[in-house]
Structures are given as C-alpha cells and as structure tokens.
Write a structure and sequence with these properties.
By secondary structure, the chain is α+β, with helices and mostly antiparallel strands. It contains eleven helices and 17 strands. A hairpin with a 2-residue loop joins strand 7 and strand 8. It is globular. It starts with 6 loop residues before the first strand and ends in a 6-residue tail after the last helix.
C-alpha cells in the first residue's frame, strides 16, 4: 500500500445552469451568530459506482449545476454594506468542486473497527477545513469534494453555516442526489422567504477582519473523536429503564388530568451521554454542567415557517444542573430535564430570545457555551440516508473537522432501514477514557 494520504487531483468552479434573479437575502437573528463558526461539513460514503471515475465526475458536476439553480444563495457571496451589515447576494460566484484521490484507503478503513476512533485522515475528505463563515465575503459559500477510495467513494460537502442549518443542509444534499439519479425536478423546493419574527433590523458591530473563530485549531488538536453506536434493541432496553417507574399522572376522582411524559429515544440517549460525560469529567458535586440541545423552531414560531425554509431556525437550548443533582438521581430524572426543556420551547420563547438578542446583538464566541458544556448537534430525524446518487444509498455518514471541541456531539441515524443511532463524540482524551469505562454508559453501546 502506498503513502497514506489523500491528494487533490483537480479543482474547478461549478455555476448554476440558469442564472439567478434572486435579490439579496437578509440574515436572521439565528443566522448572524454563526458567522464565527466553521463551515458545516457533512458527507456520505458509498460503494464504487458501476462506471468509471470520469463519468462519475461528469454526472456530479452536471447535477450540481442543475440543482444550484434551485439554491441561488449557495453560489453567491456574503456582502457587507457601508455600515457593516452582512447579507447574501446571489451573484453566481460559483461553488468549488474538488476531486481527490484516497485510493490508498478502502471502505473498511473509513468505517473503522468497532470501538475505534475516527481516523484522522477522514478530515481530508472534506473541503474548506478551518474556514470560518465570515470568510464567505471572499470565499465560495459551498464546496463539494469527491474522494475516490480503493472500493468506494466519499462525497463530502462544506456549506457556509450562516446560510443553513442541518434541515436545510440535508435538503440540499438530497436534492443534489435526486437530480443526479435522473429526476427532472427536486421534491424539496426550498423557501427563501424572510418575513418572520427572526428577521431584525439590528446587526452586531463586528471587529475589523471579522469575529474571531469560535473554535481554534488548537482546540481541535487536543481531543479524541469516536463513534458510539446504539442498536434499536439497546435503545429499547434504555427506554424500558426510563419508563420502568414513569412519573405518575395526576388524577382527580379517577380521571386522568396529566398524562405521563413521553420521553423520546433520542432524549433518553442524550441523558445517558450527559451523565456518562459528567462522571468521566470528575466534576465536584457543586460544579455546574450544561447540556445544549439544538431545537428546530420552524413549527414553533407563529405563523409556522415552511418545513423547507432555507436558513438557520434553531436555538441552542441550555439545560443546567449541578453534577450532584445530575448523578445522584436516576437516568429518568435526567431524561425528564431534557424532555421538559424541549416542551417549553414556544413562539413566546423565541420572541424573548429575539428581544434579548436585539438588546445585545452578538455572534457566538468561546464564552457562549459555558458550564462544563455538552453540545448536541444534528438530529436522528434528518434523512441522511436518502441521498442515493444513482447507484445505491450511503453506507455511512460522517462529518469533518469543523466546529469540534471538548463536549461536542453529533448524532446520525444509524442506518437506512432501522431505528439505531450513531453519536460522534468529541472529548478530551482523559474524559473519553473515562466514558469508555463507564458501566452505565457502555451497557447500551453496541460493540459490533
């Protein structure tokens, strides 16, 4: 086997098949804070297509050009006016398209052995490493990288996070796949309207050259990344524990007044991870820990936004506890904390968030997430395995090096056909070692 590196073979720009006529797009109060984030990097691993690489690249470039017609902002740029207010102009600046050679690796190397860390070279399967969203003022807002493996291909996508959250990202990725496999039109037409409570006339004053990155390159070097898999069977076992002694319902004269809370599988796993990481960090009993959960607000604001609204419509909901309160109770109590925090999210909560942000407009910084944080990103509901480009569904999903730091977790559906879930966990090495030896946590981890 040759040198264990991934090398760029070629790079070009791809432009939309039809020129854009869309006007400038305002950034919302959910978009603006992400200017300090790295580009969102996600991608899918596939078996090798039954045709040569030259045909694959031609098909992908043609499909990308066609689908970008439906997503004009992605081939635009960020622009700043004379007062420093940033918006998106759909000026057909183009998207980067990169072809890379990773033929020294195979699918088995990519997926990794059970219990192993994410291989370091996987990061090189993504474009825009280390690029901050503010750089969209002079860099493309979208880049696609196709990496050939010995027996497979990885399609990695980097999208400026200021334009889109996970819902919007996967709608684009799956629309790209839909066109590539021969569809004449996309089924998920994005909504670019900007007439909701999220759009504000207020914009933060940014320093010359833009805000400092929320995550430094040194943060990324001091952590381990590992995929923990939870089978549908182990998730059912965990939920059985959560519901073993469910919180009692209130009743009056035999009539049910308050039904027992329905805690989801995802919320149960969040509780398992939060408790396990908190134990592994060896916090003192009085120290506080905060679990941040990204909550989709499209159906929570009034009037509701289109499910295919293109942009960021998420809030990071903080749930705080002392280490003693979190660990001295049982997992049901922890899951209930998370469940109740989600249930409390409403239009009124967003209206308050907008008002608070307008009084003190800012972008995210390292101080934005405090209190021994655990941050849960993505969603097991995202249709990540729907991205069939014409020769089969993905084998697995991965993300790049972007926005990774001690305590960051990304959730993926575990596969195309079942209810399993995968969690990519990023922790300091000593904390990861503690989590790997935590009996409560490892009881539910699938080792095969």
């Amino acid at each position: 086997m040759g040198s264990q590196i991934i090398t760029v073979v070629s790079q070009c720009k791809v432009y939309p098949q039809v020129k854009s006529s869309m006007g400038d797009l305002k950034l919302s109060i959910c978009d603006i804070p992400t200017l300090a984030f790295h580009y969102n990097q996600k991608g899918a691993l596939f078996s090798s297509p039954p045709f040569p690489t030259s045909k694959l690249l031609a098909r992908l470039k043609t499909a990308l050009s066609q689908v970008l017609t439906h997503f004009p902002p992605l081939v635009g740029q960020l622009v700043a006016d004379s007062e420093g207010v940033i918006s998106v102009t759909s000026n057909d600046f183009g998207a980067d398209f990169i072809h890379a050679d990773g033929s020294c690796f195979c699918v088995a190397d990519f997926v990794g052995s059970a219990g192993g860390d994410v291989p370091e070279w996987v990061k090189e399967c993504f474009p825009m490493n280390g690029v901050v969203c503010y750089d969209g003022l002079f860099r493309p807002l979208l880049a696609v990288q196709v990496t050939d493996l010995a027996d497979g291909v990885f399609i990695g996508c980097a999208m400026n996070h200021t334009l889109a959250d996970g819902t919007s990202f996967w709608n684009f990725f799956n629309s790209f796949a839909e066109i590539c496999r021969g569809a004449n039109r996309i089924s998920g037409v994005p909504d670019f309207s900007r007439d909701s409570i999220l759009v504000s006339p207020v914009f933060p004053k940014l320093p010359p050259g833009g805000p400092p990155p929320m995550i430094s390159s040194s943060d990324n070097c001091r952590v381990r990344e590992k995929i923990f898999k939870f089978s549908s069977e182990s998730i059912l076992k965990l939920k059985a524990l959560v519901y073993e002694n469910p919180y009692p319902s209130e009743s009056v004269a035999g009539n049910l007044v308050k039904p027992p809370a329905i805690i989801s599988s995802f919320q149960s796993l969040c509780a398992l991870l939060w408790r396990g990481i908190t134990r592994a960090r060896r916090l003192s009993s009085h120290e506080k820990t905060t679990f941040y959960l990204a909550v989709n607000y499209r159906h929570r604001v009034i009037p509701n936004l289109n499910p295919l609204y293109f942009g960021n419509v998420i809030l990071g909901v903080p749930i705080t506890s002392t280490a003693a309160d979190l660990l001295n109770g049982d997992i049901r109590g922890c899951a209930m904390l998370i469940h109740e925090a989600v249930q409390e999210q409403s239009h009124a909560k967003m209206a308050k968030h907008v008002a608070d942000w307008e009084r003190r407009p800012e972008v995210y910084s390292p101080e934005s997430f405090s209190g021994a944080p655990v941050l849960m990103g993505s969603s097991p509901r995202f249709p990540m395995y729907a991205g069939d480009f014409g020769w089969g569904k993905p084998i697995t999903i991965r993300c790049g090096s972007a926005n990774k730091y001690d305590g960051k977790i990304t959730v993926f559906p575990g596969g195309a056909e079942d209810n399993s879930m995968d969690f990519e966990v990023v922790l300091a090495p000593e904390t990861m070692a503690g989590l790997e030896s935590d009996p409560e946590f490892m009881l539910y981890v699938s080792l095969s």
